[in-house]
Amino acid sequence: MRPDDDTTPRARIPADVDTPDKIVYGLTARQLAVLAVAGVIGYGIARTLGPLLPPFVLIVILTPLAGAAIVLALGRRDGLPMDAWLLAALRHTRGPKRLVPRTSGHPVAPPAWAPDTGTAVPAVPALRLPADAITDAGVIDTGAHAVALVACTTVNIALRTGGEQAALIAGFARWLNALSGPVQIVVSAQRVDLSGHAARIAEGAGGISNPALAGAARDYAAFLVGLAARRDPLWRTVTVAVTATGEKGRGTDVLRRAEHAAAALAALGAQTAVLDGARDTAVLACATDPYTPSDASRPGAPPGAAITAGD
User: Fold this and answer.
1) How far apart are CA 274 and CA 233, in angstroms?
2) Spatial distance between the Cα atoms of 130 and 134, rounded to a whole number of angstroms
3) What pLDDT score does 298 carry?
4) Which helix (H) or strand (E) holds 187?
5) Paired residues of 264 in beta bridges
6) Range picked from 77-81, 147-151, 180-184 for highest mean pLDDT
7) Taking residues 220-236, what's their average pLDDT?
8) If DSSP states are collapsed to H, E and C, what string results for 19-47?
9) Is the Cβ–Cβ distance between 193 and 293 less than 8 Å?
10) How far apart are CA 178 and CA 166, in angstroms?
């Protein structure tokens, strides 16, 4: 072992990699454009109304315009520039609030279970989701890309030596450098429903012959129920979305890239699995409603699959 094996590797990662470039006076091109447009409007107002109004009245008119331009150019809300946030708010306000998933472009009437508002209800427009189809093999068709999902666990490097940490980081860097297409790593925390697990433990306790073990199982089930009532248990999931483009063979290509990503991350000590269509459906269903306790590890029926049940 070399003397530097216990040295923790450190690397400086800039936190502003997505920050736009500053053009002049610490302002970006977007900010300069907003201020320039406001300046042109203010100059036009001053040239038009200057000879007709007293200077004090002209200042009163131009001050709100200058303040609005400064807020629009320099302000931020929810991590977005103020102009982008206002544009998104305008689109949300003007956009339809009732949507239905469908593939045809023809408007449909509201469903029978929808409440009667007593007014004329416009036709319900289409809800356009990013995914168009999911195959049984796990290929998600988004139109321009084919996507495959890889579920993996995290790797704790805090207890490793400096040399081991450097080896893990180098292995992860090799996988990143080997990528030939866009990849998204999603780390999310979801609520855990412990009631089902507690019910299964309590049911299994009835089949334990040893009274002490059966009592311990019941106590553990009661502990899980109490934990869910007192706390808000969460579990962390890591999903890697691998993409591929092209008109032909992109489904096979994206699965090959997913297998390569799973193998590369497994070499670092993580448990990985390429998800099939049923588990892709479960993961996407959980992502649409992250505040509802659900179990994404249980497969769900892919779109278009027939669901049957016994009598």
Assistant:
1) 26
2) 11
3) 64
4) strand 183-191
5) none
6) 147-151
7) 85
8) CCCEEECCEEHHHHHHHHHHHHHHHHHHH
9) yes
10) 18
pTM for this prediction: 0.61
Rounded CA separation 254/240 (Å): 12
User: Residue 151 belongs to what H/E stretch?
Assistant: strand 146-152
Helix, strand, coil distribution of the chain in percent, nearest 5: 45, 15, 40
Which one, of 264, 247, 244, lies nearest residue 255 by Cα?
244
Residue owning tokens 């900010």:
31
Distances from the Cα of 287 to the Cα of 90, 145, 253, angstroms: 25, 19, 25
Element (H, E) at 130: none
Please give the angle made by the CA atoms of 280, 284 and 288, to the nearest 5 degrees.
Answer: 170
One-letter amino acid identity for 119?
T
Residue 275 exposed, middle or buried by CB count within 10 Å (0-12, 13-18, 19+): buried
| Average pLDDT value for residue range 184-197 | 83
DSSP code per residue over 70-96: HHHHH-EETTEEHHHHHHHHHHHHHS-
Residues 121-169: tens digit of each pLDDT: 556 667 777 788 888 888 998 888 899 999 998 888 888 888 888 888 8
- Give the torsion sign (CA, 113, 118, 124, 130): negative
